[in-house]
Design a protein that fits this description.
Largest sheet: 12 strands, antiparallel, barrel
Strand content: over 45%
Helix content: under 10%
Distance between the termini: 36 Å
Number of helices: 2
Strand order of the largest sheet: 1-2-3-4-5-6-7-8-9-10-11-14
Radius of gyration: 17 Å
């Protein structure tokens, strides 16, 4: 059974924060794995880390599949993300009290005609395993629980639940000017949603999906 923290993401819309909450995301340009990020709060304190890696799956021949790990500031693992062959592009899991992994969400890119705007469908919890599922509980007639939409190149994306914006990434501003740094950008929370979950979604959207 999914934990109550993630179960809350599936029912209704999370409450809005009194004020938007900003983080700064920094991508490690010289990372060996190509998937390393750090996330700092408004005071410059480290809040999360994202570390990349790879593992081998036997699919007729040995191939390397990407992995991403969301860690807290002390380096403790919070979420594990695995690139998956086949229908879904990524799966996210967390370890429960018994040391077993629970499915948090599955992610699948949506085929788009637009060259610049990309979309990633998010299916939360164990319900994502049901192939007959065709609606988002209590929200709308859409099959997904969340949608990540934006431009990976510009490090800009918006995370939706129904028509509600939960979080958003954007370019930083310097001296009144918008500065496009692909290795550094802002992540803003508008609702009381699990921050590690959003960090995982952003990491996949910007660094885990082959959008070609």
């Amino acid at each position: 059974m999914a934990s109550s923290t993630y179960q809350q993401q599936q029912v209704g819309v999370p409450a809005k924060l009194p004020l938007p909450l900003d983080y700064t995301v920094r991508k490690h340009v010289f990372s060996l794995s190509g998937g390393d990020f750090t996330v700092e709060d408004a005071h410059g304190n480290l809040a999360f880390k994202v570390r990349g890696g790879s593992s081998s799956y036997f699919t007729g021949s040995a191939t390397k599949q990407k992995q991403l790990f969301v860690l807290d500031a002390s380096g403790n693992p919070l979420l594990s993300l695995y690139q998956k062959p086949g229908g879904f592009d990524w799966e996210c899991c967390r370890r429960n009290w018994f040391g077993c992994e629970e499915l948090v969400f599955r992610a699948r890119k949506r085929q788009q005609a637009s060259k610049w705007v990309k979309e990633l469908e998010i299916y939360l919890g164990l319900e994502s395993l049901d192939p007959k599922r065709c609606y988002c509980t209590g929200m709308s007639s859409t099959p997904w629980d969340m949608l990540v939409k934006g431009s990976p190149f510009a490090r800009s994306c918006t995370i939706y639940k129904g028509n509600n914006i939960l979080a958003q990434s954007s370019a930083l501003h310097q001296l009144g000017k918008k500065v496009l740094w692909r290795h550094k950008f802002r992540l803003t929370f508008y609702c009381n949603i699990d921050h590690a979950l959003v960090v995982a979604l952003v990491a996949i959207f910007f660094n885990g999906i082959n959008w070609k």
